Backbone:
């Protein structure tokens, strides 16, 4: 036992490290640290190696800014994907969601954030300039904005539309309306109005 | 002493959202009855959350909250007004957020601010309906008055002398317009044109609709914007975030008709 009744120093450091992770409170951090203490050494080593590998082997694709092990990333180097179609997402995780649909065969651009001016996050804080440069190079026919349908997401879409629109590239965004399984009773007026506008023949 | 009810109703305009954890958000809301308050909505970022669209920033909603240990918890929300026109245009969104940020920064939690909710609601409604964006100056001027920073505009703020109809210094340090003789003691400020002085004075007594109906040249709009930003920065002792963002937008190419993306894709 360390002086003062606290845990030994290595465990205290591990608790502190877990506590810094998003969504992990002090009790969860303690539980995780004592769990690591109990698991076989190989399992602990695998965890440590996995963490280090993420830091050592993952880079950003120079073209789309997706996280990748190789540059260009798999999406940018795949010649079967349509290079004239760029889907713009807020974070690399969003690519996985879009890929799961199997409905998109173009390429991506990761903004690594979203405009949130109230919190001081402006255009210079996200990767918009890289997108502009990509469009200026040529060969892009359409930008599909796949930001969240929130005030911030909409503002980001409109900002990029105004920035890139004059270059003659079509800027579109994902349709807005009701999610599957939604309940009309609880739907807000704005979503319902947009769903009505985007209605389709049955 | 009667125990406070565990659940209570509130109605207000959502000023701000901060995301925490995997799917929760903390919302700052401004209401007429209890002033500014904060609460957490659990799971609100999930696609199937019932409250998601009702708690978007710049939405006027009715809410039900349960008292929590540190933060109260939103349990229900229903839109009263979504100010849709604010969301379909980049500049209008920015104007609405600028008003929301000022309310957030100039008010304290759970302090009633009589008249401010009605002012915010009226200005957001007008901007959403297409009113010119110089209405934000009207909002700023009235917000300052309501929060204790009323400007002295009828005579010199330092010596009380009557002001001639001429270019006049508007000084934050002095708390209003300053005559030529007192300029040296005013501690800086911004010179307002004759028309600028008239517009600022008119704003005090006009309704939002009357002020929005004013024809203001782009030069005068810039002059008033710069003057009000000076005042706001002085009283807040910092630059609001939205100021920098509005400058960013001003550098963009002009808006084009399909900006809101509602054009159908064939």
Residues:
């Amino acid at each position: 036992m360390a002086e003062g009744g606290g845990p030994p120093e290595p465990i205290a450091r591990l608790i502190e490290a877990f506590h810094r992770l998003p969504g992990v409170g002090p009790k969860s951090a303690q539980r995780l640290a004592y769990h690591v203490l109990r698991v076989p050494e190989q399992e602990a080593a695998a965890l440590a190696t996995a963490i280090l590998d993420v830091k050592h082997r993952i880079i950003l694709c120079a073209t789309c800014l997706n996280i990748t092990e190789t540059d260009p990333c798999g999406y940018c180097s795949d010649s079967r994907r349509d290079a004239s179609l760029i889907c713009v997402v807020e974070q690399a995780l969003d690519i996985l969601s879009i890929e799961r649909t199997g409905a998109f065969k173009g390429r991506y651009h990761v903004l690594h954030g979203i405009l949130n001016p109230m919190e001081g996050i402006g255009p210079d804080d996200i990767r918009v300039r890289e997108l502009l440069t990509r469009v200026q190079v040529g060969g892009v026919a359409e930008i599909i904005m796949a930001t969240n349908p929130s005030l911030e997401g909409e503002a980001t879409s409109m900002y990029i539309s105004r920035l890139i629109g004059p270059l003659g590239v079509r800027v579109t965004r994902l349709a807005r309306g009701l999610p599957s399984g939604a309940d009309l009773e609880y739907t807000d007026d704005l979503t319902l109005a947009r769903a009505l506008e985007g209605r389709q023949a049955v | 002493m009667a125990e406070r009810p565990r659940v209570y109703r509130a109605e207000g305009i959502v000023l701000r959202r901060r995301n925490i954890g995997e799917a929760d958000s903390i919302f700052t809301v401004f209401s007429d009855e209890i002033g500014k308050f904060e609460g957490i909505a659990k799971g609100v970022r999930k696609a199937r959350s019932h409250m998601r669209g009702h708690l978007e920033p710049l939405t006027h909603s009715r809410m039900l909250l349960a008292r929590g240990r540190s933060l109260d918890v939103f349990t229900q929300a229903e839109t009263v007004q979504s100010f849709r026109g604010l969301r379909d245009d980049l500049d209008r969104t920015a104007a609405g957020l600028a008003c929301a940020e000022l309310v957030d920064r100039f008010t304290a939690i759970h302090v009633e601010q009589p008249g401010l909710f009605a002012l915010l609601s009226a200005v957001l409604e007008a901007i959403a309906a297409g009113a010119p964006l110089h209405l934000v100056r009207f909002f700023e001027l009235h917000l300052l008055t309501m929060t204790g920073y009323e400007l002295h505009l009828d005579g010199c703020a330092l010596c009380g002398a009557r002001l001639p109809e001429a270019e006049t210094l508007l000084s934050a340090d002095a708390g209003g317009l300053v005559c030529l003789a007192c300029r040296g003691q005013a501690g800086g400020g911004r010179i307002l044109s004759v028309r600028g002085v008239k517009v600022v004075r008119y704003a005090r007594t006009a309704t939002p609709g009357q002020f929005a109906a004013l024809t203001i040249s782009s030069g005068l709009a810039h002059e008033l914007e710069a003057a009000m930003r000076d005042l706001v920065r002085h009283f807040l002792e910092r630059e609001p975030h939205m100021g920098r963002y509005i400058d960013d937008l001003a550098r963009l190419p002009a808006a084009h008709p399909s900006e809101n993306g509602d054009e159908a894709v064939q």
Chain B touches chain A at residues 16, 18, 21-22, 47-48, 50, 52-54, 56-59, 79, 82, 84, 87, 89-90, 93-94, 97, 100-101, 104, 241-242, 244-245, 248-249, 252-253, 255-256, 258-262, 265 (CB under 8 Å). The helical segments of chain B are 84-87, 90-106, 116-128, 135-146, 194-205, 208-212, 218-236, 241-250. DSSP finds eight helices and eight strands in chain B. Residues 261-266 of chain B have pLDDT under 50 and may be disordered.
